[in-house]
Amino acid sequence: MPALRVPIVSFIRGVGDTVRKEFAASSSPAGKLFRSGGLQFVDVPLPQLPGNKQDAGYEEHQHHEDLLEPRWDLTPEQHKIVEQAEVVVMDSHTGGPVFLDPDTNLPSDKRHILDNVRWVQGTYAGVEMYLNLLPKADTEPKPEQLPQFKLTRGGGVMPKIMAQYVFGYVTLVERMLLEAKEFQNKREFARMELVNYRSASSVTVGILGLGDIGQGVGKMLRTAGYNVVGFKRHTSPKEAANLSFCADRITTDLDDVLSCSDYIVSVLPSTNATRYVLNEKNLQQCRERSPVFINIGRGDVISEKTLVDALDSGILSRAVLDVFEQEPLPRVSALWSHPSVHLTPHVSGKVFPENVGPVLLTNFNHYLRGEPLEFAVDWTKGY
User: Fold this and answer.
1) CATH number assigned to the domain comprising residue 292
2) What pLDDT, on the 0 to 100 scale, is given for residue 141?
3) Is 106 domain-assigned?
4) Domain for residue 213, yes or no?
5) What burial letters (b/e) apply to 180-192, b meaning 16+ CB within 10 Å?
6) Cα-based distances in Å from 165 to 1, 170, 220, 221, 349
7) Helices then strands (H, E): number in the chain?
8) Which residue of 39, 79, 202, 272 could cross-link 34, Cys pair, CB 3.0 to 4.6 Å?
9) Which residues form a coiled coil (predicted)?
10) Cβ neighbours of 297 (radius 10 Å)
11) What are the strands, taking DSSP E only, across the chain?
12) Residue 377: inside a domain, yes or no?
């Protein structure tokens, strides 16, 4: 029986080596298959896509100028491996364009090279590069109109590192570390001013979105002693009990979360149901507590104008933003110079090479057994 050869198409340096080490060390069926030579992971060059500037890391690793036509420089052997592949490991920045718009993003002689793929394992949590290329329709599409391959996110990779980002900023604000620096610059030993911080148990953090990343954020904050309220569009008493490790309380009432929180952390994806879910009307619920808004999900959960107005009016006290309605953030944006805004350029989460192997190994064992894959994307829900 010929070996199952899996192309790895990623700008993450060293990911192929770490995947092979993960499988070589595993006693699972997938690990045994790999050690027997029946499963191989083959590093394949990235295709060069015209005008693909979605991700800074992608640009850094591509090293090519804007192209008028796509390129994918493969050796004959690499071409054969990709053409025969049932499973591919691929970044979404590449996968979305080449799978869902091959006529634009693949050379004419390679537009059918991915036709045999049944499962794509992504490296990141976000899948907008696929979803944005799905046909737009007013009604729910029929199954045959949706992609016919399975897509799994890089789930389990981001929760801890993105939770560190949120925890860092909550600590920065709660322990008045920014103010401490100002006193330092003035050479003032301002102990009385800086010792007057709140206990974590008196602070409530509302988390919008309790997927794996939201759960990671909630778990870290609860461990530090904060009260956590989680928002999910749909939940049940059983699910709420299962998520008690990351939230003291879970609700489907967004207004409830907005009104009781000292921090509002959005981990929401960009879907039809979440775009601009925060608006001038429901943000009025924040007026009494004037919370800090932290966004590590997607920028279109709120419009820039609505956000700036909420800050200027005191409905929100600060905003910590890693994602934006438009990326890269335009130089003319008011957010750059707003005194109540702290921003970073979409860096709260990062995939390290060693992060990809564990989720791939777990899913490969499911795949070999014919079991459902973890972190599978529901094309109709958008996550």
Assistant:
1) 3.40.50.720
2) 78
3) yes
4) yes
5) eeeeeeeeeeeee
6) 47, 9, 11, 11, 8
7) 15, 12
8) 39
9) 173-200
10) 25
11) 4-9, 39-43, 87-90, 119-121, 150-152, 204-208, 227-231, 249-251, 263-266, 292-295, 318-321, 341-343
12) no
- Which range marks the domain in which residue 77 is found? 4-157+351-369
Report how far residue 217's alpha carbon sits from residue 129's, in angstroms, rounded to the nearest whole number: 24
Q: What pLDDT score does 56 carry? A: 46
Q: Are residues 169 and 130 in the same domain?
A: no
Whether residues 177 and 30 share a domain: the answer is no
Q: Check whether residue 149 and residue 163 sit in a common domain.
A: no
Q: What is the pTM of this model?
A: 0.90
Segments of the chain with pLDDT less than 70 = 1, 52-66, 137-138
- DSSP one-letter string for 364-383: HHHHHHTPPPTTB--TTTT-
Lookup: tokens for 339: 């005194």
How far apart CA 143 and CA 119 sit, in angstroms, is 16
Domain count, the chain: 2
Q: What's at 88, amino acid-wise?
A: V
Integer Cα distance of 95 and 101 in angstroms:
10
Q: What is the pLDDT of residue 117?
A: 98
CA distance 264 to 283: 11
Torsion of CA 58, 62, 65, 67, to 10 degrees: -80
Q: What is the pLDDT of residue 61?
A: 46
